[in-house]
Automatic annotation (TrEMBL):
Main location: cytoplasm
Function: Catalyzes the attachment of alanine to tRNA(Ala) in a two-step reaction: alanine is first activated by ATP to form Ala-AMP and then transferred to the acceptor end of tRNA(Ala). Also edits incorrectly charged Ser-tRNA(Ala) and Gly-tRNA(Ala) via its editing domain.
Positions contributing to Zn(2+) binding: H549, H553, C659, H663
Origin organism lineage: Bacteria, Pseudomonadati, Campylobacterota, Epsilonproteobacteria, Campylobacterales
Keyword Ligase: yes
Gene: alaS
Organism: Helicobacter mehlei
Entry's Gene Ontology molecular function annotations: alanine-tRNA ligase activity; aminoacyl-tRNA deacylase activity; ATP binding; tRNA binding; zinc ion binding
Protein name: Alanine--tRNA ligase
């Protein structure tokens, strides 16, 4: 049975709408990851959004690593925990409640083939209604009342919550007979497969449970657990869902799964998490989601280290990206993985190489410190050094100690951490103001109104002010024209004026924290600002930022069109995806996925494409619409856009993207576009930097000035022709230099002549002449003999250079006559200022070095007499 499809079809027959899985990156700022099927419906549960259907069902990818729900440290050590899993769920929005939810669930459990005598349920000790309803389906002794710990569910510290009822399957006592293997115990015999949440409360920040205006149903069944149960295996990792991954790991390490259960299971679980997070736009970083991703990968790499160590080797080669490749190939139901496979593997490999550079050293430090431990406590200072110097997250060190029943001295670790924080000067009252913003508590403020789409200058009231040092502060206005950094454009800059237009402060940056736009300001020397003040807020450089932002959209379109076609021709991945952007008033930077560096001709095509769109003078259309509508319209959407209820879609000159930033009203306002730099960011990721608007005209003016100076220096208005001449001269000079390096020089001293005997193989005579010119320069008259090798003959070439008014053709005849009298064959010619003579033996025999020197001395004497006469 295909469990997922059977579940969705079961509820579709009960009038539920099938809803696709939302991103692992939730819109909800209170959550690190999507950790339950109900996350995408949270605003419906809270009554903030009208339900689009009364009943829904989904198969939701969930992540439980970091945040309130964190199973990371359990993965590999238990039969049932995962960082990433699929939750099958059904939902009722103000429609049915407990009675139908229980009946629908029991019906499907029976459909799966579980026997009634193996089904157990738990209910909240205060939920008498659920207790009574369950007795219609299971025996009373199979129903257990439990407290808040087990039967009260909440997604986060605040928000929707309620009593819940859990369904368990008894796996029998054949394999499970520990003291904890009873219903309600900590053993695995009674395995929970489904949680039915009766959502009827909203928990406030003060912990008060307020009844929801209308109760809802939220259920979640773990696909991996049910798959293992139906296949008769007692560990999720032994089911068919994980077999392809286990085979991949065994192949990569040439080891057997059964000999290394924990490490194989950790690698399999973490491969799924890393792949899906990368596919959904999470990057390796030192904070937030990116740090959780980094922790997961580094935990996996440590188990790769253990597997190599079991073979007596150290881990020195990236391996995890290979497993990710096999994962993408083995999960055809998730086209997202295949679509992003190249970038997933490339980004993972870069991160692997980063950690592998320190992993072995860190492990040696850990083992060394372990030998010095006398009890169960591990040095907090060493744990901090592993974190700070070698990149070992604390939970990784704790995981390594777990096997040895040891723990980190957390007091010592925290002391080291505090000392480092003081050294780093991370607080707001230091130089790093942006980090200081993160430390501010803005939770008491209402989100302020952003009016920057319509106004560059507005009157506003100061609602919050956070002073720092050097007259810097963060200010929050009740309505603000300042756009907060996000989606590429930098945060707006500008000025705060009083109502008489006197400057109070410069606005240096604007950032968003929890839905609030806060601006970093620097107060003028004699100015003051207080909460409640009426001020005028002015935006600077808005027009130039808008130009570069709109140009970024056209660049993205050009890349998809031009490089997409190139990739298809070269049989590569044609999906060109945005990997990052940064937009300033004077330039833009755009990172995108592509498998190689760009050719100059491709960059020229991209520039021409964008400039054609600019010249078309297309008007910009901006519309707010539902996410599904935007997606079906073909709008390019980032992952965080795809799951918003409403998205702002910008259309300009054929580009259609979900975007929250400011834009020009017509493509012609961009003015012009030029790429100024092309580079590689990392494996599979390229970067283009470009200018438009005023910066474009400045760039063109600078280029023209450079060209003008080049014409003046070359003294030729035709630059290409001048460059060709320079190249020809350079080739000749280069050839002479090469000849100089290749020839063996034997200078023969003489008071009035220089004689150089030069030996080389297969050198062109013209190149030799060039060498002679370079060798002679401003020196005395020169006679040079060149030993020339070729397949037909062995010859000596004598080169004669003019000396004042002397006739070289006359000297040539003198030397020719003398050489012929010695029994050699000659031929030669030239001009009055230079000539050459080729000398060969009649038997075409090779010339020896001593023969050449003797002949050279003799020819030197003859030439001298002739020149002196």
């Amino acid at each position: 049975m295909e469990i997922k499809r059977a579940f969705l079809d079961h509820f579709k027959h009960l009038d539920h709408m099938e809803v696709p899985s939302s991103s692992l990156v939730p819109v909800d700022s209170s959550l690190l990851f999507t950790n339950a099927g109900m996350v995408q419906f949270k605003d419906i549960f809270l009554g903030k959004t009208k339900p689009f259907t009364k009943r829904a069902t989904s198969a939701q990818l969930c992540m439980r690593a970091g945040g309130k729900h964190n199973d990371l440290e359990n993965v590999g050590y238990t039969n049932r925990h995962h960082t990433l899993f699929e939750m099958l769920g059904n939902f009722s929005f103000f429609d049915y409640f407990k009675e139908e939810a229980i009946a629908y669930a029991f019906s499907f459990v029976q459909k799966l083939g579980f026997k009634q005598q193996d089904i157990y349920v738990s209910v909240h000790e205060k939920d008498t209604q659920a207790y009574e309803l369950w007795q219609k389906f299971v025996r009373p002794d199979h129903i257990k009342k439990m407290g808040d710990k087990d039967n009260f569910w909440q997604m986060a510290d605040t928000g929707p919550c309620g009593y819940c009822s859990e369904i368990y399957i008894d796996q029998g006592d054949r394999y499970f007979h520990s003291s904890e293997d009873y219903f309600g115990g900590e053993g695995d015999r009674f395995l929970e497969i489904w949680n039915l949440v009766f959502m009827q409360y909203d928990r406030s920040e003060q912990g008060v449970l307020n009844p929801l205006s209308q109760p809802c149903i939220d259920t979640g069944m773990g696909l991996e657990r049910v798959q293992a149960l139906l296949e008769g295996v007692h560990n999720n990792f032994d089911s068919s869902l994980f077999k392809p991954l286990m085979a991949s790991i065994a192949n990569v390490f040439d080891l057997n799964y059964n000999d290394h259960l924990e490490s194989f299971r950790v690698l399999a679980d973490h491969a799924r998490s890393v792949a899906f997070l990368l596919a959904m736009g999470v990057y390796f970083e030192n904070t937030g989601r990116g740090y959780v991703l980094r922790r997961i990968l580094r935990r996996a790499l440590r188990h790769g280290y253990l597997l190599e160590l079991s073979k007596g080797k150290e881990l020195d080669t990236p391996f995890f990206h290979k497993i990710l490749g096999d994962l993408c190939d083995s999960m055809p139901d998730y086209p997202l993985l295949k679509e992003h496979q190249e970038s997933i593997q490339a980004e993972c490999r870069v991160e692997e190489e980063l950690f592998l550079a320190t992993l072995n050293k860190g492990m040696h430090l850990f083992e060394s410190a372990l030998q010095e431990c006398s009890g169960s406590s591990f040095s907090g200072a060493v744990a901090f050094k592993l974190y700070d110097t070698y990149g070992f997250p604390l939970d990784l060190t704790m995981d390594m100690l777990r096997d040895k029943q040891m723990h980190v001295d957390m007091a010592e670790y925290q002391a080291c951490m505090q000392e480092q924080k003081q050294r780093s000067m991370h607080s707001f009252k230091q130089t790093n103001a942006k980090d200081g913003l993160k430390a501010l508590d803005l939770s008491a403020l209402e989100p302020n109104e952003f009016v920057g789409y319509d106004y560059d200058e507005v009157r506003a009231k100061v609602v919050a002010l956070y002073m720092g040092v050097d007259r810097k502060a963060y200010v929050v206005l009740d309505r603000t024209p300042f756009y907060a950094q996000g989606g590429g454009p930098i945060g707006d800059r500008g000025a705060i004026l009083d109502t008489n237009h006197v400057l109070l402060a410069q606005v240096l940056d604007t950032q968003k924290v929890g839905g609030i736009n806060a601006s970093l300001i620097e107060l003028e020397s004699r100015a003051s600002l207080e909460v409640g003040d009426e001020v005028i807020a002015q935006v600077f450089d808005r027009a130039e930022i808008a130009k570069h932002h709109s140009a970024t959209h056209l660049l993205h379109l050009a890349l998809r069109e031009i490089l997409g076609a190139v990739a298809r021709q070269e049989h590569k991945n044609a999906q060109i995806q945005q990997k990052g952007s940064h937009i300033e008033p004077h330039r833009l930077r755009f990172d995108f996925s592509f498998y190689r560096n760009l050719e100059d001709t491709e960059i020229a095509q991209i520039e021409a494409f964008v400039n054609d769109k600019i010249c078309a003078g297309a008007s910009t259309a901006i519309e707010s619409m539902g996410a599904e509508c935007a997606k079906s319209s073909g709008a390019v959407m980032l992952f965080e856009d795809k799951y918003l209820e409403q998205v702002r879609v910008v259309e300009i000159a054929g580009s259609l993207e979900a975007c929250g930033g400011v834009h020009v009203s017509n493509s012609a306002h961009i003015g012009g576009f030029a790429v100024i730099k092309s580079a590689s960011v990392s494996a599979g990721v390229r970067r283009l930097e470009a200018v438009c608007g005023k910066a474009y005209y400045d760039f063109v003016a600078k280029e023209r000035a450079v060209l003008k100076e080049a014409r003046q220096r070359l003294k030729n208005p035709d630059l290409l022709k001048a460059l060709e001449q320079k190249e020809q001269q350079g080739t000749k000079s280069k050839g002479a230099n090469a000849c100089l390096e290749a020839l063996k020089l034997y200078p023969i001293a003489h008071k009035k002549l220089q004689l150089a005997v030069l030996l080389a193989q297969k050198q062109d005579l013209n190149t030799f002449f060039a060498f002679v010119d370079q060798y002679k320069k401003n020196q005395e008259p020169l006679v040079a003999i060149f030993k020339h090798h070729n397949a037909q003959k062995h010859a000596l070439d004598v080169v004669l250079k003019s000396v004042g008014a002397h006739d070289m053709l006359a000297l040539l005849e003198v030397l020719k006559t003398h050489v012929q009298s010695l029994g050699y064959t000659t031929k030669g010619g030239g001009k009055k200022d230079h000539a050459s003579l080729s000398i060969s033996k009649k038997d075409q025999a090779e010339w020896g070095a001593q023969e050449i020197q003797a002949l050279a001395q003799e020819l030197c004497q003859v030439a001298l007499k002739s020149l002196e006469s």
